């Protein structure tokens, strides 16, 4: 019995030893397989591609010099003196409002000034007469040939005439200011071109009511153009410098690529679309006549190192 029990124990021990050895062999094989294939995977990884460092933005075509004209006073349009596409010179009349009402105001103010000037002259004459009477009373007082009441009356008259003259002069000054204001308002009924250029936009007709401050005419100097973008955030604009190279493409003209340079960066940021953005001005190095004001441009800025 004892011999059989010892044989059974030895057999169990051998089985456990064999199973443990088999398990260790399997684990070792798996580890070697993973190590081998892991190295192969690393060898097969693609090289890292560096991202393009260009700053991308969207912009708008602008003439470098342009004017947007609005009537500073309201009224009815009396004359439209140019048409879209016309070339104009600085100072050339563009639009006139009907001026009768403003002319009436000027005429009334001018009449008031004339009346105030006459009142000043009359007050000056009255003061001169009062001063003469005071001088006469003073002489009589020295000669004891007048009463104290007469002398005081003459003194009071001079003071009153001086006050009347001062008031008349103040009225004249106010009248002249009103006349100047009325003349200024009438002068504002005519729009003149502030620059040489081409009329590229006109939204006005004779007989229409022109509201003060509404843009009616746009004039562009078509000799030089630029692209502006307010699309650069704080992170983007920090990478950009004046003089950086720019590539411009245009949504409306596929295939047109223009080189350019950053010429100005506005230092003040504005909150737009939930971000603080900065405006960048780009000068194209050449131009294409197919481009027009307000066309959309795609901008790719290459920051200098």
UniProtKB/TrEMBL annotation:
Residues 113-185 form a coiled coil. One of its GO terms (molecular function) is transmembrane transporter activity. Its main location: other. Keywords: Coiled coil, Membrane, Transmembrane, Transmembrane helix. The chain crosses the membrane at residues 18-36. GO terms for cellular component: cell envelope; membrane. Signal peptide: none annotated. Belongs to the membrane fusion protein (MFP) (TC 8.A.1) family. PANTHER family: BLL5650 PROTEIN (PTHR32347:SF23), EFFLUX SYSTEM COMPONENT YKNX-RELATED (PTHR32347). This is Rnd efflux pump membrane fusion protein barrel-sandwich domain. It comes from Lucifera butyrica.
């Amino acid at each position: 019995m004892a011999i059989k029990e010892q044989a059974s124990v030895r057999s169990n021990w051998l089985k456990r030893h064999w199973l443990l050895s088999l398990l260790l062999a399997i684990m070792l094989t798996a580890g070697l397989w993973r190590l081998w294939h892991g190295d192969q995977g690393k060898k097969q990884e693609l090289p890292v591609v560096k991202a393009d460092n260009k700053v991308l933005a969207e912009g708008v075509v602008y003439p470098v010099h342009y004017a947007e004209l609005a009537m500073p006073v309201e009224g009815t349009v009396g004359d439209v003196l140019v048409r879209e596409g016309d070339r104009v010179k600085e100072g050339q009349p563009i639009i006139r409002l009907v001026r009768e009402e403003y002319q009436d105001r000027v005429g009334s103010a001018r009449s008031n000034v004339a009346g105030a000037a006459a009142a000043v002259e009359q007050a000056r004459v009255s003061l001169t007469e009062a001063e003469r009477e005071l001088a006469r009373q003073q002489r009589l007082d020295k000669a004891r040939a007048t009463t104290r009441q007469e002398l005081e009356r003459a003194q009071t008259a001079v003071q009153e005439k001086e006050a009347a003259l001062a008031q008349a002069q103040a009225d004249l000054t106010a009248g002249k200011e009103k006349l100047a204001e009325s003349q200024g308002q009438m002068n504002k009924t005519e729009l003149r071109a502030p620059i040489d250029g081409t009329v590229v936009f006109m939204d006005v007709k004779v007989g229409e009511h022109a509201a003060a401050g509404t843009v009616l005419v746009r004039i562009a100097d078509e000799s030089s153009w630029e692209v502006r973008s307010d699309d650069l955030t704080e992170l983007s604009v920090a990478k950009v410098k004046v003089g950086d190279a720019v590539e411009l493409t245009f949504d409306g003209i596929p295939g047109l690529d223009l080189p350019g340079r950053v010429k100005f960066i506005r230092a003040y940021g504005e909150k737009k679309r939930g971000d603080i953005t900065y405006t960048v001005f780009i000068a194209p190095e050449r131009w294409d006549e197919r481009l027009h004001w307000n066309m959309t441009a795609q901008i790719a800025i290459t920051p200098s190192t």
